[in-house]
Amino acid sequence: MKDRMVYLLNEARSWAWSSSPRVAGVALGMSLLWSGCQAAGGHSRAEAAPPNFIVVLVDDQGWNGTSVEMVPGDSLSRSDYHETPHLEAFAAEGMRFSQAYAGAPVCAPSRYSVQFAKTPARLSLIRVGMNSDHIDHEGWWSPPRGLKALNANYVAAHFGKWGMGSVPEQVGYDVSDGPHQNRAGGFVNDRTQWDPSVKEDPKRINELTDKAIGFMRDQTEADRPFYLQVSHWAVHANLEATAERLAKYESKTPGAQQISPGFAAMTEDLDAGFGRLMDEVEALGLSDNTYVFYMSDNGSVPNIPGARKYERSYNYPLSRGKWDAMEGGVRVPLMVRGPGIEANAHRSVPVSGVDLLPTILTLAGAESEFVSALDSIDGGSFAGVLQADEVEVQRPVEGLFFHVPYRNGIAFKRPHSAVRQGDFKLVLFQDDGEVRLYDLSTDIGEQVDLSEAMPEKANAMRSDLMAYLSSVRAPRWQEGITWKNDPIATFNSVH
Fold it and tell me: What pLDDT digit, counting tens, does each position of 61-92 carry?
């Protein structure tokens, strides 16, 4: 009988890995049940209290946009003007990553990559405003679906900026406040966006925090594990802040790089909202069983009026900023706190938004075979890095890939793609084939092009980049293409 059960379980697993999340969840449930039956004393890992997860995704906050040193001891890795005391306390209790990346240098593709662990290139969704009819919102793995496959008691909620061509419920969320876009956060795309305005609840920070607190209280009372994503509109334009904090920064001496009182005040207002959320986690007695991730969806705008532009911008010492695949556009703050994570720890391991889904599932108890079998993902789990068991992330693809194949009137104005492998990063310009190669271990500002000095390395990475883009049928650049209304297949790479 035992041998027969093992045979049936293995067959179910094998079939499920190539099927839908629902089917795979059934197989995983069988696996957990069987493991529990075999455990000594009848107790299994599945019977332990499942952890909660909170993902705080903020908008347009640069790598050095807070007062947390992303590299301990390096003053250039923090803001020289903004104050974020609650984030400082949070970082002291957890782990910060100095080489964390968003999936894209703009919001929508980055947010898609967080939900599905796929690069924007694979998603065929690489800019804001694209047609997303080809995306399988209902069928692909997401944090809510993966956690519910592990434990049907999980409840998932999303509050704030959604920024995707769907509603949160289509992606597996049970509770949401709707499919909000930028305008719901006060964004108006004109010159007024950089004029600070006083608001009682800037960027709806307190409203979102209240919703998150209410959800946590409900799940705690019901004794149900949860996944909560709070997606703030801050610190995206328009600049909004409380009167108290705006007055504070208007009287404070500006930094060398960061000088906008409105932007700084909004940043500290966001920090205060995050502090309220963490205080509630503590008050509810959830700290010992809750993983909290704090991350930005892309790098900061480099050229807020009044500041230097790209030479020594808001993102300095990183190069350039939002809209570009250079470090200022894609390197972002990431801090994580939770059970088993060393306090005040720093890791320089490159990680990405595409890694969040497999990481969360691993921390929730998923076996490595389950995570590795997730269909067509680009991310890998960094749970081992968080728990000091591993020093790198194993992904289905070798490298972190970025794809910006369109002319942006604000930034580079050139279509480009990039790949990071180890310490090296290669940028390929698709209009004329130019390549640039950087060693980020010694050149974080991407100032020294090594492509001529290291042609073999440049050629190998270019080949890897092109092979990847071709394999996922990434949208290709054509003059005048916007991908907004035409079928995406028309513009996918041919291979």
Answer: 999 999 999 999 999 999 999 999 999 999 99
| 318 & 266 share domain | yes
Final residue in a domain of this structure, among 386, 409, 441: 386
Q: Are strands 416-421 and 400-404 parallel, antiparallel or unpaired?
A: antiparallel
Q: Do 441 and 485 belong together in one domain?
A: yes
Q: Quickly tell me which residue has 């419920």 as its tokens.
A: 169
What are the phi and psi torsion angles at 277 (to 5°)? -65, -45
Note whether 267 and 232 are within 8 A (CB): no
State whether 253 and 193 are in the same domain: yes
Q: Are residues 255 and 176 in the same domain?
A: yes
Q: How confident is the model at residue 308 (pLDDT cuts 50, 70, 90)?
A: low
Judgement on whether residues 272 and 416 belong to the same structural domain of the protein? no
Whether 430 and 294 map to the same domain: the answer is no
Q: Which domain holds residue 438?
A: 400-491
463 and 367 in a common domain: no
359 belongs to a structural domain? yes
> pLDDT for 189-232, tens place per residue?
888 899 999 999 999 999 999 999 999 999 999 999 999 999 99
- Tens of pLDDT, residue by residue over 36-70, are 333 333 334 446 899 999 999 999 999 999 999 99
Instruction: Classify residue 395: in a domain, yes or no.
Output: no
* The total number of structural domains that make up the chain: 3
Report residue 154 as tokens: 């999980």
Q: Does any domain span residue 173?
A: yes
